[in-house]
Specification:
It contains two helices and four strands. The protein is an alpha+beta fold. It has one domain. It is rod-shaped.
Length: 127
């Protein structure tokens, strides 16, 4: 004959055998390490992208400054003395095309520094 034990007696017997241990398991530590390594890789990629963007912005600023300087030189020159040409200053290659008209001169300036190319198109009135 089978003796039925009350449910509470069964749980009481199980709880006396089950011991809870404090701390973390190896699996939990490994999962945490994977998550932290993914976050570290993401941070490193963001820093690298930021450095490249900052370098590109500096190159753009340098080429635009060279365009501005050359455009100012062209603007103060007499129209009769203007001619197309190119120049290199501080590793920035600046080329300009002059298109003469009756009362003004069309100027297309292009500056290249490293991998950045900037173009400026303007009209200069003749005096």
């Amino acid at each position: 004959m089978t003796v039925l034990r009350p449910v509470t007696a069964i749980f009481a017997a199980m709880s006396s055998r089950v011991r809870f241990r404090s701390g973390v398991s190896v699996v939990e530590v490994l999962v945490a390490l994977v998550i932290l390594s993914i976050a570290a890789l993401g941070s490193a990629a963001t820093i690298g992208y930021s450095a490249r963007a900052q370098q590109r912005a500096a190159s753009l600023r340098r080429s635009l400054e060279a365009l501005r300087i050359r455009a100012a030189e062209i603007e103060v020159s007499p129209c009769a003395s203007l001619a197309s040409g190119n120049a290199v200053a501080d590793s920035v290659v600046v080329t300009w095309q002059i298109e003469a008209a009756e009362t003004s001169v069309g100027v297309t300036l292009t500056a290249t520094y490293r991998d950045v190319t900037s173009t400026l198109r303007t009209e200069v009135p003749c005096r």
